[in-house]
Write a structure and sequence with these properties.
Layout lengths: L2 H8 L10 H8 L2 E2 L3 H9 L7 H9 L3 E7 L2 E6 L3 H15 L1 H6 L4 H15 L5 E2 H10 L8 H11 L3 E7 L2 E6 H4 L8 H16 L4 H8 L3 H10 L4 E6 L2 E6 L12 E4 L4 H4 L13 H4 L10 E4 L2 E11 L2 E8 L5 H18 L2 E4 L2
């Protein structure tokens, strides 16, 4: 089994591609999104005919939602999944932040007061930027200095009060989740664990149990409950003495040994796994996340393997793309990069030019 090629197919990077942003996000379960523009491309590269504007329109249309459901990190989730994911995953995150809350002198009274301020400021379908909401807190006598404001916003989002709304210029707004997303059917805990497990291994497989627990922030016991409830949609295979879970049936994608992809930093193809050695030679890990600083570079992928990084500079009417491969590219590989760059330019609606 070629793990890299199977992941490219199951993640729908090779196709068959989706037509709607909400389909992509629901398929992956959740997509890391602290890098906003990169996350838009993560969705777009799994679609046919996508543009940056069409992904942002899905936010406006309330098909996808950006919030903090897992690992204390921003993700895109499908609107219909937002509440059950928050209910399942955020209690442990909130409990794990107790020490930081004490350092910042944030207690239940402060949280209750701040959430009342958020409701008063946003109710009626309003959307306010982070700065505007923090100003509301300051006006109400709630200090926002020293990361207090950030933690108050995140805590409210993890409790299902807030989520991000559409862009206002270059800033995203916050809205009330209950006003933004229609009511959805709640899932029981075991049902939610089974659903998340099925989504993860169907879209990210082949993957290991530690990959899943690291991605979702679950315990091994919880993951095993999820596997037990996922039914017969998953199978397991052993490769190099490791047990991998993957979907029983894999979508038929194109022959990806002859295709190249420009993936954004923080894409699920890299971030979706605790062990990335199946697609990334550990010798090159520092190129992807320099110094282990948590900032992941955009990657160049060929035949299921990360073979380099790339940078972009957007100018009027064009995007300049500079690939940095780990080895000299031959003529066929250079053609792959050119095709991938052209697709990315089409996504942005500009001409793509390769530079050295």
């Amino acid at each position: 089994m070629n793990i890299g090629l199977a992941r490219l197919t199951n993640q729908r990077i090779t196709g068959p591609w989706f037509t709607q942003p909400g389909e992509v996000v629901a398929w992956l379960g959740a997509m890391q999104a602290q890098d906003y523009t990169g996350a838009l491309w993560s969705i777009g590269l799994r679609m046919t005919g996508a543009t940056e504007q069409s992904i942002e329109q899905a936010i406006v249309d309330r098909a996808i939602v950006r919030t903090w459901p897992m690992r204390g990190t921003l993700h895109f989730v499908a609107a219909q999944d937002a509440r059950w994911l928050l209910t399942l995953l955020t209690p442990r995150l909130i409990a794990g932040s107790a020490g930081r809350y004490r350092q910042l002198e944030l207690d239940e009274n402060v949280f209750a007061h701040s959430q009342a301020v958020f409701v008063a400021a946003l109710q009626g379908g309003k959307g306010l930027t982070r700065e505007e909401l923090l100003h509301q807190l300051d006006e109400a006598g709630i200090a926002t200095t020293g990361q207090r404001g950030y933690y108050l916003l995140v805590h409210a989002a993890q409790n299902g009060l807030l989520c991000f709304g559409p862009m206002q210029g270059k800033q995203q707004t916050f809205v009330l989740l209950d006003e933004w997303v229609p009511p959805t059917k709640p899932l029981g805990r075991e049902e939610a664990l089974a659903e998340l497990t099925r989504r993860y291994f169907t879209s990210h497989g082949p993957a290991t149990l530690p990959d899943f627990t690291g991605w979702a922030g679950l315990t091994v016991a919880e993951a095993k409950i999820g596997l037990a409830g996922a039914g017969n949609v998953l199978i397991q295979e052993t490769v190099d003495h490791r047990t991998y879970w993957l979907p029983h049936s894999t979508p038929t994608g194109k022959n990806d040994t002859h295709s190249g992809y420009l993936l954004p930093g923080f894409d699920e193809y890299i971030l979706g796994y605790k062990d990335r050695s199946a697609v990334l030679d550990p010798a090159f890990s520092n190129y992807i996340c320099p110094g282990g600083n948590g900032v992941f570079q955009p990657t160049l992928v060929m035949a299921g393997q990360v073979v380099g990084t790339w940078k972009r500079v957007v100018k009027k009417g064009k995007v300049l793309i500079t690939p940095s491969a780990f080895h000299p590219l031959d003529e066929a590989e250079s053609a792959m990069v050119a095709a991938a760059a052209e697709r990315y330019g089409a996504f942005l609606g500009v001409r793509a030019e390769l530079t050295k």
